[in-house]
Amino acid sequence: MIIKEVKNVSIAIRVWAILALFAIALLANTILNIDGSRQHVREGREYTLLI
Question: In sequence order, which residues have a C-beta less than 8 Å from that of residue 6 and are 6 or more positions away?
Fold first, then answer.
């Protein structure tokens, strides 16, 4: 069973696994939002050029 296997894993490994998952999620979020961020920067530059 998975629960018994998880109980045998040390706390340090669990913490590192959680941190790794957080880092992967943060990286994926950054990659997915790059295009949106670039578009936002372009619109901001166009607005400042119009002023």
Answer: 14
